[in-house]
Amino acid sequence: MSFSLPELPFAKEALEPHMSRETLEYHYGKHHKAYVDKANKLIAGTEFEKASLEDTIQKANGGLLNQVQQIWNHTFFWNCLTPNPKEPGKKLADALVKTFGGVEDFKKEFAAAAAGNFGSGWTWLVQNADGTLAVENTSNADTPLRHGKKAILTVDVWEHAYYIDYRNSRANYLEHYWQIVNWAFAESNLG
Ligand code: MN3
């Protein structure tokens, strides 16, 4: 078994003007694809040749771990975006009210964490093993899966995610992110 690049869940131009076709051509077509290609080279002849992506994330180390985490993180990220956003559903909205005080309070805390995530990384809404929700940052390729947490929502804050559309302004990128968030996908991840 080898890893494959999943189809994007929308057309490359579908998220414009918030995320351009050009960004997706690079971010999905080159960066995400490169993680898949590099992982497949690294598993050749190893115990991971027949392992699932999730098992490999739990067991791999070093360069391979970085690549497989980035494959998973990006696939999850594309699913967190939609050209047809709707308001958060009741189950998710209630959970956000309980933990953060409200949907807008959650968005503020998540955006502040993303703005403050130093260097390359990801910002997540996670569900802990005890069912509680939390906003967390990870660095580089690190992913909540590796730490026994369920990912609910994420934003990629590597510069490659926003440099084409927003240059150095992560803040502008984050403002536009809220216009294309797939709340229904986030809600479907709640346990
Ligand atoms: Mn990325």
Explained architecture:
- This protein has 191 residues and is mainly alpha-helical.
- It contains eight helices and three strands.
- The chain has helices at residues 21-43, 53-59, 62-79, 90-100, 103-115, 163-166, 170-177, 183-189, and strands at 121-127, 133-139, 150-156.
- A three-stranded antiparallel β-sheet has the order 2-1-3, with helices on both faces.
- The model has no long low-confidence stretch (mean pLDDT 97).
- The site of manganese (III) ion has 7 residues, from α1.
**CATH T-level topology of the largest domain:** minor pseudopilin epsh fold
Please name the fourth-level CATH homologous superfamily of the largest domain.
Answer: Iron/manganese superoxide dismutase, C-terminal domain
Please outline the major beta sheet: 3 strands, antiparallel
Report low-confidence residues grouped into runs of 5 or more.
Answer: none
CA radius of gyration: 16 Å
Instruction: Just give the CATH class of the largest domain.
Output: Alpha Beta
Number of strands: 3
Tell me roughly what share of residues is in helical segments: 40-55%
Q: Taking all residues together, what is the mean pLDDT?
A: 97
Number of helices in the DSSP assignment: 8
Q: How would you sum up the global shape?
A: globular
- Based on the structure given, which CATH architecture of the largest domain is correct? 3-Layer(bab) Sandwich
H and E string: HHHHHEEEHHH
Q: Which molecules are bound besides the chains?
A: manganese (III) ion
Q: For the terminal residues, how far apart are their CA atoms? A: 29 Å
Strand residues, percent:
5-15%
**Strand sequence of the main sheet, in spatial order?**
2-1-3
Structural class by secondary-structure content: mainly alpha
Query: How many domains, in number, for the residues?
Result: 2
